[in-house]
Specification:
This protein is mainly alpha-helical. Helix content is about 75%, strand content about 0%. Keywords: Membrane, Transmembrane, Transmembrane helix.
Amino acid sequence: NYMGISDEEGYLLTIGICCLVAFILEYLIPKLKP
């Protein structure tokens, strides 16, 4: 428990970040390649 975030909220936040990173890797990286 850190920064006033509960375990469940931290878990959901981690899942959200992972999904965002996966989206960036799948969608943005190919566009950056020539």
